[in-house]
Design a protein that fits this description.
Blueprint (H helix, E strand, L loop, with lengths): L2 E2 L12 E5 L3 H13 L3 E5 L2 H8 L6 E5 L7 H13 L9 E5 L4 H10 L3 E4 L4 H12 L28 H4 L11 H7 L1 E2 L2 E2 L1 H27 L3 H17 L3 H15 L6 H29 L1
Length: 296
């Protein structure tokens, strides 16, 4: 169990104890650093099953819940957390904020139905995450526990509609760099500056983890396993957006959407394009890493 204590920060510390359920290591690394800078302490869970186990053994002020995770997704984990709370009448209802790279109305409805309270889209920024944490750990009025037998949608504030990340909405022209350094530095901005140490860690995680995602995607295509392709494409979309790889993220996103409809036809060529874009992004990230390391 990974527990991180609150870091000293110039801004007013929020002091929240947060359960972060996120299987993507790049996203988890960034979210953890941002939360630490806000003065939060964090317990990490790598999947929904771990999140439920963590929740049932200790108290949290807030849960940040990725929606798509292995073993148990965020929707099912949220339902089980709400069931656990319902068996303890005196236990206050813990706010659960969805973390997702999808901005579709159907995903919003699933969040509400599962019992989530809010929604932060990926790639998230420091201001977005802090606003969500503040909204639920220091609300203007006390949170009201959900009465037994009352559906969550009747008492919760509506899940806020997420905006589709710009990096996923449209791919840039082929002549554009594979990595938008400004977007990368903004996503990793801690306080008033970007930490070179964090950039190095995130780049290393991207370079270590994404080849396996491409391999899983190719294997899923070869075996006609639509769910496997969709999951790999979703993770690649989210990770790429967080590091500023707009074209790679956009193509992974369109691949995910096609798989959602259960159709794998024509995706073999797209898989080759993903490999090409990934190779370009990896080269540019490796170059950035070398620059930062040499100036350290």
């Amino acid at each position: 169990e990974a527990v991180h204590e609150a870091a000293t920060t110039a801004a007013a510390p929020l002091g929240a104890h947060v359960l972060l359920a996120e299987d993507n290591r790049v996203n988890a690394e960034i979210a953890t650093e941002l939360l630490l800078d806000m003065g939060c302490s964090i317990v990490q869970a790598a999947n929904g099953q771990e999140a439920v186990e963590r929740f049932t053994t200790q108290a949290f002020d807030l849960v940040l819940m990725d929606c798509q995770m292995p073993l148990m997704d965020g929707y099912e984990a949220t339902r089980r957390i709400r069931e656990f709370e319902s068996t303890r009448a005196a236990t206050p209802r813990t706010p659960i904020v969805a973390l997702t790279a999808n901005a579709l109305s159907g995903d919003r409805d699933r969040c509400i139905a599962a019992g989530m309270d809010d929604h932060v889209g990926k790639p998230f920024r420091r201001g977005q995450l802090r606003a969500a944490v503040q909204r639920w750990v220091a609300p203007a009025v006390p949170l009201v526990a959900v009465p037994r037998g009352v559906a969550p949608a009747r008492v919760l504030a509506p899940v806020r509609e997420a905006q589709a990340p710009a990096a996923v909405a449209a791919a840039p022209e082929a002549s554009a760099p594979a990595i938008d350094r400004d977007a990368l530095m903004e996503s990793l901005r801690i306080g008033a500056r970007t930490s070179p140490r964090l950039v190095l860690r995130v780049v290393d995680l991207f370079l270590a983890d994404t080849p396996a995602l491409l391999a899983k995607l190719a294997e899923g295509l070869a075996r006609q396993r639509c769910e496997q392709v969709e999951r790999a494409a979703h993770s690649l979309k989210s990770t790429s957006a967080m590091v500023g790889a707009a074209a790679l993220s956009a193509l992974a996103g369109s691949t995910e959407e096609q798989c959602r409809s259960g159709q794998l036809g024509g995706l073999q060529r797209r898989a080759e394009q993903l490999k090409h874009l990934h190779a370009q992004a990896a080269l540019e990230l490796a170059a950035l890493r070398a620059e930062l390391a040499s100036s350290d």
